From TrEMBL:
Organism: Aquimarina rubra
Xref: Pfam families: S1_2 (PF13509), WHD_CvfB (PF17783)
Record-given protein name: S1 RNA-binding domain-containing protein
Alphabetized InterPro entries for the sequence: CvfB_fam (IPR014464), CvfB_S1_st (IPR039566), CvfB_WH (IPR040764), NA-bd_OB-fold (IPR012340), WH-like_DNA-bd_sf (IPR036388)
Domain Conserved virulence factor B first S1 residue range list: 4-63
Length: 277
């Protein structure tokens, strides 16, 4: 059975003037137009393709990878607004439709929006929604402190930044945990600090506790090597200067250089830190 909005591995069954026809295990066939056909192929070869509906609502295959697949989020640019809704560029010839009812705010041409792609069961069409919170669920969060997670920056709040966690949940990175510029749609690695009894997830963009020392120390070593072996920062430096260079809190920086000092990788001088030969 064909799966719209995602990748399907299908078999080439016949060639025609307009392209090749692909078949699934149930004998359903779909056209792969000539411009996407591999230069060399044989009948019965398997091809990985993305399936969606063309302008005439027919299932069509492409080897182009869209910016988002069904049941996932992506930061997309609005290209058209019509009397039925808006359209965003998701990397394919036919743009993704965003009905008015699925717009968190009125969309404008040229603006970027965080969009969730889903299959409308009533029409069997792929559509998008900027009402992203409606597609997140924190009722069952199977995460633990220190777990590494994939994040998409959603929108700022008075406390920090709301993040989409593993394409499933909503979490928050507090303002005092952010040491880098964050903008909507940024894809980041993060770590779970706490899962609260109500399902809310507290996040950090840095490894914390004892797990933070090793990667942060390596980052500092790498920067020292690329800077000629000396950096004019140490445990007495201004926190903002440390943040500008390493995107670390002063506490994390002090832990990292302390571990490097104990390992005899650096010496801590009055005006900075120096790499040991």
């Amino acid at each position: 059975m064909f799966k719209l909005g995602t990748y399907n591995t299908l078999e080439i069954v016949r060639e025609r003037d307009q392209g090749v026809y692909l078949s699934d295990d149930d004998g359903n066939e779909v056209l792969l137009p000539n411009k996407y056909v591999p230069e060399e192929f044989m009948i019965r070869d398997e091809v990985k393709v993305f399936l969606y509906l063309d302008h005439e609502e027919r299932i069509v295959a492409t080897t182009i990878e869209p910016y988002a697949t069904v049941n996932s989020f992506a930061y997309l640019k609005c290209t058209t607004v019509s009397d039925i809704g808006a359209f965003v560029d998701w990397g394919l010839e036919k743009e993704l439709f965003i009905p008015f009812r699925e717009q968190a705010s009125k969309m404008r041409v040229g603006s970027w929006y965080l969009i969730y792609v889903y299959l409308d069961e009533e029409t069997n069409r792929l559509v998008g929604s900027s009402k992203t919170n409606a597609f997140l669920d924190n009722s069952l969060v199977l995460l633990s402190p220190f777990d590494e997670v994939d994040l998409i920056a959603s929108h700022p709040s008075p406390y920090g930044w709301n993040m989409i966690v593993n394409q499933k949940h909503l979490g928050l990175v507090y303002e005092d945990e952010i040491f880098q510029k964050v903008t909507p749609g940024d894809q980041l690695k993060g770590f779970v600090k706490k899962v609260r009894p109500d399902g809310k997830i507290d996040l950090t963009l840095q490894r914390h506790g004892f797990r933070a020392i090793e990667p942060n120390a390596q980052q500092i070593l790498d920067e020292l090597k690329s800077s000629g072996g000396f950096i004019d920062l140490n445990d007495k430096s201004d926190p903002n200067d440390i943040k500008d260079v390493f995107q670390l809190s002063k506490k994390s920086f002090k832990k990292a250089i302390g571990s490097l000092y104990k390992a005899k990788k650096i010496v801590i001088e009055k005006d900075g830190i120096r790499l040991v030969d």
